């Protein structure tokens, strides 16, 4: 995916704008921002499977497989540096990094065979292109995984920019990645909105002042509403979304 313009540093000193739970009028929208994992594709089941298998192999939790609830509440949407410290507080950083690198490689093997776009995704991306809005992917996924997922759902040419949280001073749940995307386009948060599926990601977008559509592919709706979602959709064919986009 060498054709993608990629952002390698983050603007993190700008003050976040006030929270706004309402999408801006469509006539004023200039940019639409997307998370990747769980938002472009329902990839959380594959991340869960990769974590479950690899953690069981090393005897984590006395060898008992982690639950989906544990994954959703403690791992989903979080940057790998945070995940590593949470799972392995007694390990040195090199050992944590190696485990998480291996987990990402396992995830990519699974995703190469099983990744599917969220229903209605291309209907929405076609609408965004027709409107002429800027579009960026903003993710905590490592670059290799992010690029594979974007290509896997057929959106290599769709995104104008990709912001990688790990290449920012602070990843999600801090607002820096979203602020960087807005800064790159020269767009105010009041003239943009985002799609997110995790509490950590939603919190980052809300902290950047963005209205956020929560998609319930892998996390419970009440948690997304509590994190600041403007409203919830099950996928991109959801009538609730298209009523808002009129």
Explain what the structure shows:
Keywords: Carbohydrate metabolism, Magnesium, Metal-binding. It comes from Ceratodon purpureus (Fire moss). GO terms for molecular function: catalytic activity; metal ion binding. This is Haloacid dehalogenase-like hydrolase domain-containing protein Sgpp. By secondary structure, this protein is α/β, with parallel strands linked by helices. The protein folds into 2 domains: 6-43 and 116-244, 3-Layer(aba) Sandwich (Rossmann fold), CATH 3.40.50.1000; 44-114. Helix content is 42%, strand content 11%. It has helices at residues 44-57, 68-74, 80-87, 93-114, 121-131, 143-152, 176-185, 199-207, 221-226, 239-244, and strands at 6-7, 31-34, 134-139, 161-164, 192-196, 212-215, 231-233. The protein has a 7-stranded parallel beta sheet. The chain is globular, with a radius of gyration of 17 Å.
Element pattern in H and E: EEHHHHHEHEHEHEHEH
State the fourth-level CATH superfamily of the largest domain: HAD superfamily/HAD-like
- Please tell me what the overall shape is: globular
Computed over alpha carbons, the radius of gyration is 17 Å
Helix-strand makeup class: alpha/beta
- Our count of helices gives 10
Unreliable sequence segments: 1-18
Q: Which architecture of the largest domain per CATH?
A: 3-Layer(aba) Sandwich
In the sheet with the most strands, the strands line up as 1-4-3-2-5-6-7
Q: Count the E strands.
A: 7
Percent range of helical residues: 40-55%
């Amino acid at each position: 995916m060498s054709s993608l313009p990629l952002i390698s540093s983050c603007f993190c000193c700008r003050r976040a704008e006030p929270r706004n739970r309402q999408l801006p009028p469509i006539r004023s929208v200039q940019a639409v921002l997307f998370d990747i994992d769980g938002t472009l594709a329902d990839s959380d089941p594959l991340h869960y499977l990769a974590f479950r298998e690899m953690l069981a192999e090393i005897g984590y939790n006395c060898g008992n497989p982690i639950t989906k609830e544990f994954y959703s509440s403690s791992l989903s949407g979080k940057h790998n540096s945070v995940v590593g410290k949470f799972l392995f507080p007694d390990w040195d950083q090199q050992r944590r990094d190696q485990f998480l690198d291996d987990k990402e490689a396992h995830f990519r093997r699974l995703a190469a065979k099983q990744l599917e776009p969220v229903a209605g995704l291309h209907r929405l991306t076609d609408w965004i292109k027709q409107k002429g809005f800027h579009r960026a992917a903003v993710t905590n996924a490592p670059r290799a995984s992010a690029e594979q997922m974007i290509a896997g759902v057929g959106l290599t040419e769709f995104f104008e920019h990709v912001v990688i949280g790990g290449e920012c001073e602070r990843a999600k749940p801090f607002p820096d990645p979203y602020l960087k995307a807005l800064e790159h386009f020269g767009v105010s948060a009041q003239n943009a909105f985002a799609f997110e599926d995790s509490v950590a990601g939603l919190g980052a977008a809300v902290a950047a002042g963005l209205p956020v559509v929560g998609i319930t592919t892998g996390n419970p709706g009440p948690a997304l509403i509590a994190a600041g979602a403007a409203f919830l959709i099950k996928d991109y064919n959801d009538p609730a979304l298209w009523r808002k986009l009129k």
